[in-house]
Amino acid sequence: MDIKYNVSKIKGSKEEIVKDAVSVEEPLEMRLKYKKNGKIETQNISITMRTPGNDEDLIRGFLFNERIIENMDEIDSIQHIGDPVGDYNLHNVIEATINKTDNLDIGKLKKNFVTNSSCGVCGKTSLDSIEVLKNDKLDSYFPKIKEEIILKSPSLLMNEQSEFAKTGGIHASALIDEAGSVIATREDVGRHNALDKLLGHTIQNGLLNIKAQFIACSGRLNFELVQKGLMANIGIMAGVGAPTSLAVDLAKRFDMTLLGFVKESGFNIYNNKKRIILS
Asked: What's this model's pTM, rounded to 2 decimal places?
């Protein structure tokens, strides 16, 4: 979703007034409804700045990646609530009703969400915290992806980015298979939201095959993106930008193949090259 603004375009000391498309950024409040001690409870669990659209995929992916749910069947329903608001007449509150209540600690969850949203993660504490959610390493050998497919992934991703082509100000994540076919793509102003949307969509629709697919991202790969990939048992994550140190440390701990600076001429392998078939 984008909106056009009148902007002054300066080139060669000359000014031209043009219409420029800018990606819309709006808050989304995510709420959780569940039954506790025979009573219906509703809790606000997160507020994220997102690009409107695919909100249902976003909350599905968020709930899965934060391990509030372990499969999509635990979600009974998802609905926007409240009246449309703001300049764009949007529904900015979404509510998921879940049927899983065992070991659901809302106080702990809300604390973790605040930490994640403020990027308040650091070093060993962050790496240890994910092991509470995931205690097994990935399969070291799968998927097997040819070098030529990795090299093509930035252009495959770009071809699917309709909003980026218009605004240049949005991130994307794509699920790509071993033959170089793009299974699905999602875009958002937040790189973590784009990945939540992608995983929410592909898991919900049975499109994810971890033995034959990998994920390509349009920007740098940080701790949060790698963590979300691990929750879905993604063996290879590739980014056109650089990974962060925590992203590399996390990939090493769980044996994810992490690729950075991916372009047509080459890429860097930061961990586990066994999954990449070199020409």
From this structure: 0.85
